[in-house]
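Researcher: Next entry in the queue.
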Amino acid sequence: MSAVLPVLSTRLSAAAAAAFGTSYDPELRSSTKPEFGHYQSNLALRIGNALGLSPRDVAARLVAALRIEDLCRTPEIAGPGFINLTLLPETLAKAVNEPESFTSKGQRVVVDYSQPNVAKQMHVGHLRSTVIGDALCNVLEFAGYDVVRQNHVGDWGTQYGMMIEQLLEEGIAAESLDLEGLQRLYERSRKHFDADGTFAGKARLRVVALQSGDPETRAMWRHMVDVSLDDFDKVYELLGSNLERADVVGESAYNDDLPRVVAELEQQALLTESDGAMCAFLPGFLGRDGDPLPVIVRKSDGGFGYSATDLAAVRHRVSTLHADRIVYVVDHRQALHFDMIFTLARTAGWLPTTVPAEHVSFGTVLGPNGKPFKTREGGTVKLVDLLESAVARADALLAGREGVDRAATARAVGIGAVKYADLSSDRGNDYVFDLDRMVAMTGNTGPYLQYAHARLTRLLSKAGATGELTELKDPAEQRLALLLTGFAATVEQVAETLQPHRLCTYLYDVASALSSFYEQCPVLSSEGATRASRIALCAATRKVLQDGLGLLGIEAPDAM
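Model: Structure for this entry, 560 residues:
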């Protein structure tokens, strides 16, 4: 939708106030040929129905009071009282030459995303949270919000008690293990924990020792954390993620606050003892058997569950980080958990009603068989293997191309293809991981958009100096220009809805309109003002594609 439409809406509202003394929020919808900037308003029908007047008479009075000569051709009244508006080419040209910019919203958004677990290699399950979270942070920052990234790394809880106890039983030094070794240690300790009740009891006590600050336990745990974070950084670098070490605020960071969380909930009579555990039972949350579902804040062994950690995180983000909005990018299976955590936090007064907390859920990455993506052996696919496969596939496509930095471009195209495939469908849906489709140079893919950008870069390098857009004579020019004026509105929409596929759809529309423009409007071979204007239109399109891909976390190579 064009960014000039809000101006038209404001003018229509002012005309209604002048003619009838009433204030309305007009709706403008695309008319028969939206690609040429035709829009229709039903405002006269609404006013006529409200005041008992003839809608056509109302339309005539609105048109008489309407001041849009600088934006549109003379308005037309159609049918029972619709007002048809057609944008002037000059309006589109000016909107392209003077794109909207964002100013500070004066609001802070805290975004929790990625969330890998210490002592485990990042796998395909971490792809969506990281890619979606990065894109949303980029968009929110671009739209004028103060964004605080939080990587809520899983570095606390039962599994570390298991692993440390297993290390002690095996007599292995923690320092001798890399991340792969730690993952195998976890697998051994998990089997031991499930099969041996005595070991399980020791592991639970080890968790309490970890949470209590036992020096030996903490030292082994610290090594696990450091090794893991080093490996995560390498994956983030390959993925092109904006997450940094400073953004890591693991579960352990809230350890000292957990007793206070329990104490304050007890003071407010929000906790009930159940089989030795301290639980909150919230109205309306029932299990399949109809029994109340608990939020387990403190376990029967004295340890704290991840619910307590999440509650402490909410408190910290509101009281210390001063969040005006909190966003959690976590898969759809956690929907009930977050619903209960947000409800309890609001009940306790830690999450004010003025601070929205939103669970940005997403579906599953599927294999070609339509089931969750696994290795041939049935194991979890490591994220780094997936990304390197995409880069290799892109590299093969670039074979024989001249004037291209093949290694850098293959990485940009391969990683970009994976990201775009993830972001381009509604995040709530599952999607099939199909590398052949992802790296295709045609269709709604990342490489298609990247190639459109590279083609424009090559054209502009031949064109020379770029001026301003001055004329839009051809319908293909008008359609492309109209789409370009909608960039800011699309960014605003994504920042509000937290649905990045809307930006992907917009960019694909721009690239498709650009293709039609190429076919119908010669650029370099045209002459005079027409040539200069078309070059300016190409430059504006290149910027929108470059900025838009950047917001998605995708590089825009200058050559492909």
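Model: The chain has three domains: 5-87, 108-360, 383-551.
Researcher: Noted, moving on.
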